[in-house]
Design brief:
It is a single chain. This protein is mainly alpha-helical and 71 residues long. It is built from 3 helices and no strands. The longest helix is centred in the N-terminal third of the chain and has 23 residues, at 2-24. The chain is elongated.
Amino acid sequence: EQREEHRTEKLREQARIEAEVKENITFTEAASLFLAWGKSNKKDHDHDQTRLDLHVLPVIGAKRMKDISAS
């Protein structure tokens, strides 16, 4: 039982750290993850890189994901 409590606590701590990282990630960092995924999952992934480089990253690349909204 004590072992299970310790495991549960470690999982909670890991989840807290992951949430903090996700909250503090910049748009550029998130875009990099998306582009890496796109190389394996999308036929037109090169277009994504071009659009991001030309239009999106210069405007919001340095912003934290938590600070970006649709409004």
